[in-house]
Design a protein that fits this description.
44% of the residues lie in helices and 18% in strands. It is of the alpha+beta class and 308 residues long. The protein folds into two domains: 2-141, Butyryl-CoA Dehydrogenase, subunit A, domain 2 (Beta Barrel), CATH 2.40.110; 150-304, Butyryl-CoA Dehydrogenase, subunit A, domain 3 (Up-down Bundle). The protein has a seven-stranded mixed sheet. Helix 4 packs antiparallel against helix 5 (196-229), helix 4 (150-177) packs parallel to helix 6 and helix 4 runs antiparallel to helix 7. It is globular, with a radius of gyration of 22 Å.
């Protein structure tokens, strides 16, 4: 749901003709897709031909429209280095490769295309689109909403989902631990909660989750400022926003890892909600939008004044 919602927001930076075609029959549709530019396009009269395989096409089973990125083929007669395009789902072949540790409900399967035509009005140059510089943003009264760079927004939205899962896991962990016995010592209900080591485990996880929420709150404040200013965002601000989202996810990952380690054997069952939260947070933390190493490098270079 989060990923599809992010794609709907990006659609606001596509042409009015594209939006009208997509939303005419269902203004409430959610757009599936994958933002990484994986396949290739070739320029032809009136648009582009797409071919290739795209991994991680989230929500593909649930939406009639897809948003995907593609690189210019070497033999293309022209076009930018990268495009993002909207196309109907019935133009792609879906390959069910999504058998994963977590986030299984996203259904992020592969899609395969072979010489699929996409008209020009359903494509935007990736550079302008991702940097918040699409000219179509001006179509909206609240055009400032579309000035937020795509990766800054996507990373924050993903981090917010991870934060929600981590909070729910903490709440459930506390609920179960409060009445959990110690079966080997024979101590009854609440025995585990009386252990100082367990108390520290909960305290540290709670602090990490609270810190993550504060970092995301700072990003939301920056988004509000960008929306109000209605101006493009510089690289320093982009590095900061992506870092704050990535580190918020890292803090939640640490908290969830710590909680799961103390959750006991019953959390190992597949139907355990604690295991589900653990798997989903671990999986989400591997998303490229919140890559810890990449975001840290960008922020470190920004702080130290090192040129990319």
């Amino acid at each position: 749901m989060m990923v599809c919602g992010a794609h709907n927001w990006i659609a606001g930076s596509f042409s009015a003709a594209c939006r009208a075609e997509m939303f005419a029959d269902d203004p409430n549709l959610l757009i599936a897709g994958t933002l990484a530019s994986q396949g290739q396009f070739t320029q032809v009269e009136g648009g582009w031909l797409l071919s290739g395989r795209w991994q991680f096409c989230s929500g593909v089973d649930h939406s009639p429209w897809l948003l995907i990125g593609a690189m210019r083929a070497k033999d293309s007669r022209g076009g930018p280095g990268s495009l993002h395009l909207m196309l109907p789902r019935d133009q792609v072949a879906v390959d069910d490769t999504w058998h994963t540790l977590g986030m299984r409900g996203s259904g992020s399967k592969d899609v395969v295309l072979k010489d699929v035509f996409v008209p020009q009005h359903r494509a935007e140059a990736t550079g302008k689109l991702f940097s918040g510089r699409s000219p179509h943003a001006q179509d909206h009264v609240n055009s400032g909403l579309y000035r937020v760079p795509v990766l800054c927004s996507l990373s924050a939205q993903l981090a917010a989902s991870v934060l929600g899962m981590a909070r729910e896991m903490l709440s459930l962990f506390i609920e179960k631990t409060a009445v959990r016995p110690d079966i080997y010592s024979g101590e009854g209900s609440g025995a585990k909660a009386r252990r100082g080591t367990m108390q520290r485990r909960v305290a540290e996880a709670s602090a990490e989750i609270n810190a993550a929420e504060l970092l995301l709150g700072r990003n939301c404040d920056l988004f509000d400022a960008i929306t109000e200013a209605q101006e493009p965002v510089d690289e320093e601000a982009q590095a900061l926003m992506r870092w704050q989202s990535a580190y918020a996810v890292e803090l939640c990952r640490r908290a969830v890892e710590r909680l799961y380690a103390g959750a006991g054997a019953h959390a190992a069952y597949n139907d355990s909600p604690l295991q589900q939260y653990y798997r989903d947070v671990m999986m989400a933390s591997h998303h490229a939008a919140v890559d810890m190493d990449g975001a840290a490098e960008l922020q470190g270079m920004s702080l130290l004044g090192v040129e990319p």
